Amino acid sequence: MPKYTQPRKTWQYTTDFKIKAVKLSQQDGLQVKQVAEGLDIHPFMLSRWRKEYREGKLQGDGQRRVGVVNKKRTVSNAEVTENARLRKENERLKKENDLLKKWQRYLAERHQSDLDSCKDTEN
Question: With the CA atoms of 26, 28, 32 and 36 taken in that order, what torsion angle do they form, in degrees rounded to the nearest 10?
Fold first, then answer.
């Protein structure tokens, strides 16, 4: 293993660059990986910057915010009802999907047994 005589180069990005990268990655039709490759940075680094931006740790004036207060979100009755309806529909669709899979297996086995019986009668 080679011995390093000088310290590794660590890139320091300005806060403005980070924010511009985050805003670019939030555009519709662009993925984090595509933006990161375009900016020649690692996708994980861009993902970390996006998280810091969401949490309010990155601010546009080059400073970091501290003490961000999380507001508790209240859930309305309509949202609860819609959520329950979607869960019910999801369960129904899962049952339908399972039934169709069973029917497909049954037809495949029946077809195979028909083929096997045709081979037996030919011999």
Answer: -90
Encode pLDDT of 45-58 as tens digits. Answer: 999 999 998 888 88
In the block, which residue shows the tokens 């899979």?
A: 101
Is the Cβ–Cβ distance between 36 and 43 less than 8 Å? yes
Identify the domain containing residue 40 by its residue range: 15-54
In a domain, residue 80? The reply is no
Tokens (6 digits) for 71: 């507001």
Q: How many domains does the chain have?
A: 2
Question: pTM here?
Answer: 0.44
57, two tokens: 């740790």
Distance CA 110, CA 114 (A): 6
Mark which of 54, 74, 101 sits at the end of a domain: 54
